[in-house]
Write a structure and sequence with these properties.
- By secondary structure, the chain is an alpha/beta fold.
- Helix content is about 50%, strand content about 15%.
- It has a 5-stranded parallel β-sheet, with helices on both faces. A 3-stranded antiparallel β-sheet has the order 3-4-5, with helices on one face.
- It is globular, with a radius of gyration of 17 Å.
- The relative contact order is 0.22.
- The structure holds 2'-deoxycytidine-5'-monophosphate.
- The site of 2'-deoxycytidine-5'-monophosphate (DC) has 13 residues, from α2, α4 and α8.
């Protein structure tokens, strides 16, 4: 079974997707982390962000792997190195949308994501999962929240990670990413026609997970699908 979760940054996608995958004992595939890992490589190799050919070359010559730990956490490996925390740095967040808008980079990532998803039951979160990566996903969700609420969540998250960022920085970064992610030529962020829209502005994480689980169980034939 494939569950696709799309939506803008800060809507709560990854927290919800991770919890949902844990409850269902499904694989969790954080596709944003893959674009982030490549962005880390772009910055570490001092590649110019406008040098599309070189970035595509880096994408084809990199090994990006996601390891699901038994405690539900996720380890991201770039060429065998654990980059799970490095990819959350503000510099990566600032440039990741520019890397993710390159068509050939997306083709490479989508291929990898499909391969990972086909290994078994999986929850994938991203921007184009229900529209491009798995258009035949068994269940699709589009998770959204008001802009101010999304900024506030991302700000708290960054402070929690010990990052020195201002509310204004987070706000302008989010607006910039929303703009690039939604308006790029290839696979822009948009709700799939058959995705269930969930506004999480005034919902807790548990409430969102609950809502999604109910939707998933609706179509499942077995009386108690896998749930822990
Ligand atoms: O979910 P995130 O913030 O970690 O994603 C980082 C960036 O990667 C996001 O700004 C857009 C891009 N992305 C994408 O284009 N397609 C995906 N499936 C996932 C992420």
């Amino acid at each position: 079974m494939i569950i696709a979760i799309d939506g803008p940054a800060g809507a709560g996608k990854s927290t919800v997707a991770k919890l949902l995958a844990k409850k269902l004992r499904f694989l969790y595939i954080d596709t944003g982390a893959m674009y982030r890992a490549l962005t880390l490589k772009v910055l570490e190799t001092k590649t110019n962000i406008n040098n599309t050919d070189r970035i595509v070359e880096l994408a084809s010559n990199s090994s990006i792997n996601l390891i699901n730990n038994s405690d539900g956490s996720l380890k991201i490996l770039l060429d065998g190195r654990d980059v799970s925390s490095d990819i959350r740095q503000p510099a990566i967040t600032q440039f990741v949308s520019d890397v993710a808008k390159i068509g050939e980079v997306r083709r490479i990532m989508v291929e990898l994501q499909r391969k990972l998803g086909q290994e078994g039951d999986a929850v994938l979160d991203g921007r184009d999962i229900g529209t491009v990566v798995f258009p035949n996903a068994d269940k699709k969700f589009y998770i959204d929240a008001d802009f101010k609420e999304r900024v506030s969540r991302r700000f708290k998250e960054s402070v929690g990670l010990g990052q020195k960022v201002s509310f204004e920085d987070v706000s302008s970064d989010l607006a910039n990413r929303d703009n690039i992610d939604s308006n790029r030529k290839v696979a822009p962020l948009k709700k799939a026609d058959d995705a269930i829209y969930v506004d999480t502005t005034s919902l807790s994480i548990e409430e969102v997970v609950d809502k999604l689980l109910k939707e998933i169980q609706k179509n499942d034939q077995s009386p108690n699908p896998n749930i822990e």
